Amino acid sequence: MAFIALFLSCSSSDAPPPSPPIGPLAEQVKAETKRSWEAYKQYAWGSDVLLPISKGAENWYEEPLYISPIDAYSTLKVMGLDEEAAEVETYIIDSVRFDKDIFVKVFEVNIRVLGGLLAMYQYSENEQVLQKAIDFADRILPAFDSPTGVPYYWVNLKTGAVKGEKVNVAEAGTYLLEMGILSHFSKNPVYYQKAKRSTQAIFDRRSPLDLIGQDINVETGEWLNTSSHICAGIDSYYEYLYKGWVLFQDPDLKAMWDTSIVAVNKYLPETKDSLLWYGRVDMNTGERVSSVVTLYDAFFPALLALSGDLDRADAVQTTWNWLWNRYGLEPMAYDYAAGKPTYPVYDLNPEIIESAYYLYHFTKDPKYRAMGEKYFSDILKYCRTEIAFSAVENVETMEQRDYMATFFFAETMKYFYLLFREDGGFNFDDYVFTTEAHPFRRALFSNFAASKK
Ligand code: DMJ
Predict the structure, then answer these.
(1) Are residues 95 and 235 in the same domain?
(2) For 340-397, what is each residue's pLDDT tens digit?
């Protein structure tokens, strides 16, 4: 009887459609994420990060900002860990206040805290979450009140005091998505306008070669470091020009991207031993200044692929894949002319996995999934701890470091999961990922108005 009832209920027309197959590797990624999440909850709940070897916790500042759970939320949702996600949402609503007398790094909290809260609102449609996001954004907004419109490095969440006149371009120009999304959700254009003014201020100070430098003085607009590259310190400025255009359809961003990417592809590439590197040149002369690259640069194939340049994307991914396989993990900084790391830490960073996911998404070439399988097995081999995963102090010795960055939840495990999911998880025609891998549905922004006010 029970069998018949079950059979009838499964075959009735209102039964939910069967879940798409996920695949064993994606299931393994999900299980490892859950294991690490349990460890965060047990040893670090309420703190910013888990210390995965000593089983402790650490905060970025004098008081916690709950960065790991806020950053992790969208990954928990993507993986279907709905109970865990709901627990974070309740905690944020009931227990989290941002009126803290602490100076925070504007760039870092924008991509992790504001971006994470906005993703939480998108999934939950909980107005209280939106109010938290607005409250948080209003507390970092005073940073943008510099003479140039480029934000100061630090802002005090309680007083609005600012400090830090020197910022790099990634810290100066990675706000369009989070601030634009908030403008749309809150119907207040001020956030997008502040973000765009900062991006425009950088673009307007480009050299006659259409290149920008690395560090800028937010009060004078003077370049403090004229090294031009796509490495850590500039990377996500370019990412947000293109993704900002895709999400908001603001033609000014498209024009900035079109000008910039031509110059980037003209002056930065250098081939060495058949590998294509994007190095560093002086923004004014185009002369080479350094052959040191950073593992952050492995985001670039994803951006190239998204913008339609699959050939270059493949060539650059081949380079980063070579470097990964040389060590079994990537060093944070590497001198491709000298052929050795200059900073051998691996911090559980996601970029090379993100690019494998994008390239697989666009080409369906199984070699990119195979790359991801190797990265995952190396991370299991060298970074897995009794309770979670750790950074590695030196990729030549694989000595572990007692730290698990918040982007491990937000990005690294999310991109592994999506790369291994049999259905790919997302359609890029429908979604845009922030630089911290929070996915946003493009259709929500089809009548985006903040750029027109
Ligand atoms: C992340 O916090 C973001 O992706 C940022 O833009 C640069 N890279 C780190 C992780 O490596």
Answers:
(1) yes
(2) 999 999 999 999 999 999 999 999 999 999 999 999 999 999 999 999 999 999 999 9
Residue 6 tokens read as 């079950």
Closest atom of ligand 1 to CA, residue 239: 6
Q: Identify whether residues 126 and 262 lie together within a single domain.
A: yes
236 in contact with ligand 1, CB cutoff 6 A: yes
pLDDT tens digits, 269-326: 999 999 999 999 999 999 999 999 999 999 999 999 999 999 999 999 999 999 999 9
Distance 16 CA to ligand 1 centre (A): 37
Q: Is 382 in the pocket of ligand 1 (CB under 6 A)?
A: no
Of the candidates 239, 272, 305, which is a domain's last residue? 272
Domain interval for residue 376: 27-59+291-420
Residue 50 alpha carbon to ligand 1 centre in Å: 18
Q: Is residue 9 included in any domain, yes or no? A: no
Give dist(CA 212, CA 205) in Å, integer. Answer: 7
User: Letter for the amino acid at 358?
Assistant: Y
Q: What number of other Cβ atoms are within 10 A of residue 91's Cβ?
A: 15
For the chain, the three-class secondary structure string (H helix, E strand, C coil) is CHHHHHHHHHHCCCCCCCCCCCCHHHHHHHHHHHHHHHHHHHHHCCCCEEECCCCEEECCCCCCCCHHHHHHHHHHHHCCCHHHHHHHHHHHHHHCCCCCCCEEEHHHHHHHHHHHHHHHHHHHCCHHHHHHHHHHHHHHHHHHCCCCCCCCCEEECCCCCEECCEEEHHHHCCCHHHHHHHHHHHCCCHHHHHHHHHHHHHHHCCCCCCCCCCEEECCCCCEEECEECCCCCCHHHHHHHHHHHHHHCCHHHHHHHHHHHHHHHHHCEEEECCEEEECEEECCCCCEEECEEEHHHHHHHHHHHHCCCHHHHHHHHHHHHHHHHHHCCCCCEEECCCCEEEECCECCCCHHHHHHHHHHHHHCCHHHHHHHHHHHHHHHHHCECCCCECEEEECCCCEEECCECCHHHHHHHHHHHHHHCCCCCCCCCCEEECCCCCEEEHHHHCCCCHHHC
